Amino acid sequence: MDALKDELAAVAARMVVEEGLEYGAAKRRAVKQMGLSMRTALPDNALLDAAVEEYIAIFCADTQPGELHALRLLALEWMERLERFRPHVAGAVWHGTATRRSDIYLQLFCDDSKSAEIGLIDMQVRYEPRTVNGFHGEPVDALSVQAYCSELGEHVGVHLLVYDFDDLRGALHADTSGRRPRGGVAALRSLLHDVRP
Q1: H or E element: which one contains 143?
Q2: Residue 64: CA count within 13 A, CB half-sphere
Q3: Angle formed at CA 123 by CA 100 and CA 106, multiple of 5 degrees
């Protein structure tokens, strides 16, 4: 059973890195691609994290650090623009596994749920509103923007997930492996200073 989960994680990791799929979608597509039952037990995110890191080390070691740096710079630019909404970067850009196929996920912690949308309108930024599952599985508003990344020479999806200010209290606790799930402006600046391509 563990060997099957390892194989599923390896197939899903390739999809995460090469196609920019999110973990859940990559796991489901891996099950389908391998011809397994939809009831097959899926690898957990820790196992998929390890598989993604291994895939990057084997196949993308020469390009991934520069791509990650470019995405972190773009994330910081948007976080600085949206600083009044207490932005935190999450996902692959924060955890260090992003490639040029990855989107940027910023979580905004607002006093008023509509203030971020009004802020984008004031900045004359075009966005697409939708609803996604939040970090506790609850529905949250997401504002998706296509932002040009000059270092990569292409547009990147920047997704702004809008949370209530009160959600920030529990959002910074480390997970079971001791890793923080998201970081603010100062934390991202520190990463950019400490980790260079």
Answers
A1: strand 139-149
A2: 21
A3: 40
Last residue of some domain: 42, 59, 76? 59
The band of 77, judged by pLDDT with boundaries at 50, 70 and 90, is very high
Q: Is the pTM of this model over 0.85?
A: yes
Residue range of the domain that includes 75: 64-194
Q: Residue 151: pLDDT above 60?
A: yes
Residue holding tokens 């260079």? 196
Q: Are strands 182-183 and 88-90 parallel, antiparallel or unpaired?
A: antiparallel
**Are 108 and 171 contained in the same domain?**
yes
Closest to 60 (Cα-Cα) out of 5, 16, 11 = 16
Residue 71's domain is classified under what CATH number?
Answer: 3.30.460.10
Check pLDDT > 70 for residue 121.
yes
Looking at the structure, tell me whether residues 24 and 118 fall in a common domain. Answer: no
